[in-house]
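WARN retry 2 of 3 for item q-0093 after timeout on previous attempt; input resubmitted unchanged.
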Amino acid sequence: MPTYQFEAIDASTGKEIRDVVDAPTEAEAQATIRSQGYMITKIKVQKQAAAAGGSGKKKPGRSFAIGGVKSRDLTLFTRQLSILTDAGLPILRSLRILAEQAEKGRLKNSLLDTCDEIEGGSTLSEAMSKSPKCFNRLYVNMIRAGEAGGALEVILRRLSEFMERSQSLKRKVKGAMVYPIVVVSVAVGILTFIMIKIVPQFKKIFDDFGTTLPPMTEWLIWISNAAVNYWYLIPAIPFGFNLIVKGIKMTKYGRFGWDLFTLKVVIFGQLVEKNICSRSTRTLGTLLASGVPILEALNITKETSGNMMFEQLFSKVSDSIRDGESIAKPLKEFSVPPFNLVALLFWAVFLPGVGALLYLTKYKKRVVDDLVVNMVDVGEESGELDTMLYKVADTYDEEVAVLTESLTSLMEPLLIIFLGGAVGFIVIAMYLPVFDMAG
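OK item q-0093 returned
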């Protein structure tokens, strides 16, 4: 008999419980835990028990796979499974069809494992929970809610729509970033080539004539000498900065500071904040509409937010709900970011001279707008919280799309001005001595 590790919340005291329970299946384990007055937040088979049941050999049809599943592939699979289920095919037959069509990799292996688990008597949600690298908690809990409510085909359709919207928004943001990244990379490459190969040739000519160089030309030659002697710093600086950020993020306080910085940074901070709000409200609305309990839905939304400020916010909202509060009041109260020294340092480096002052003037601005708070309040009063959360997510999706297009439109003239200014400076600096010698 397998042993299940679980995390739960005691409904009477609100304390978090971590324990184990023996049961033939996960469904019976959950029933046993609930009978003790606990609300389950996480459950899984103990590794020892899972390993003992295996033979140690690779199962037929599986291939070696590293990492997780691409969100694009999982979205396509969910839509196809939704269509097959709507058509009336049994869930096992649908999974077999999709497993045969899938390319070799993590998704195919997970589908085959899921089919084997279902044949062994597990439900779909229980089977999918055994493949966490493919099906996360959000996915599994929505499937479990669909099974409990007898509306699996509806939940699959809702889940596929949710994933498609998230994928579409992600593609828009990534697509908008491609143009400036490519232009800046090419510009840096061209300017580096000019500094290393072209400017030194002009310097030799100026040295042969022995003329006095204008300050602009001397500055250009100094930059060229630095590029020739320390060329390796050009790729090393961004690489080193990335390593420093990763090292800072290894601590909880450091990661919190970096996340606060990304939410408030000039130009892009607003885009990051609205994107997280859109994803979080849509996730929470989808879970609630699927029948997932509010505390479990908030825990899942917290894990998928991707930002420590929002993780802390949803944790405090959960605590307030356990104390009998509504969602809207703590959502407004705890959405004010605290002061963070790491965030202040990032601001000081990002905008030398004025960055620290800007941070001190704007760090207390709430990360959740009044729009969200008011819509949540109306949703709680009317009993249509999931609908209101969908409306908030749609509003933020539109704002993110408009903001992305605006930033793209703004970046183009800025890049042209930057490149024109750089090239103009180089040309003037190199030809000023020529004009002097001609005179």
